[in-house]
Amino acid sequence: MWRPWGKSPTRIHDTSASSSLSPSPPPPLFSCSSFKDIVSLCADEPSSNLACAATAAKKSFAVFHRVRVANSLLRAWSTRSLPQPQPEPRPEEPPAICIPGAEKRVVVYFTSLRVVRSTFEDCRAVRSILRGFRVPIDERDLSMDSSFLVELQQILGRRKLTLPRVFIGGRYVGGAEEVRQLHEAGELKQFVEGLPAAEPGVCEACGGYSFVLCDECNGSHKLYSEKAGFKCCNACNENGLIRCPSCSWSPI
């Protein structure tokens, strides 16, 4: 069972032969002929490293200098007082338009003529809205008395006007569009809360028209005298009517 000591099956290769077939080792990185050359090579490498380090230090110093200058400039600009923008002047609100002596009622300037249908519809709608609150309403029909037009122009300071125009508690509210918006928003009720309640029923003297015939000219607007002949009545308007003394307020 044991192998003989004399012979071994393992073959030993010849290193001399195999070395001739193997590739030659790479040449050395440097060659030197003496120990002096090695010393000189070792001395050159630190000097080159120091030069590179000095160049890198100069670059880093230049970058640091730039960053420091930029930070100082930014700090100076941030602390610099910039001119503050001036606030735009607010438009002045127009003064409130008021009618003296009308603090306890509603005054409506309107027309009963149907010449312009849209104007007539607006006047009728506004009067219907205001009558629903059961408060005293002074209705001033410009088609019945031209002095109301002059009066309204003086109050608003305008020559051209659209109707209707509404004053509540002596203060100007607006026209038909403003009254509709306030009524839809429920704010119109707050305007008339402080007003007294209107008396029920219709005036027996004028029947709710706010005008009666003039007693001087009996509605003709003309007076006759033997000396001067016919002349215009000074007590009534051009229609021969006067405001009802029972239910109407005197013009302002």
From TrEMBL:
Residues of the Glutaredoxin domain: 107-173
Region annotated Disordered, chain positions: 1-27
Entry superkingdom: Eukaryota
UniProt-listed InterPro entries: Glutaredoxin (IPR002109), Thioredoxin-like_sf (IPR036249)
Stated name of the protein: Glutaredoxin domain-containing protein
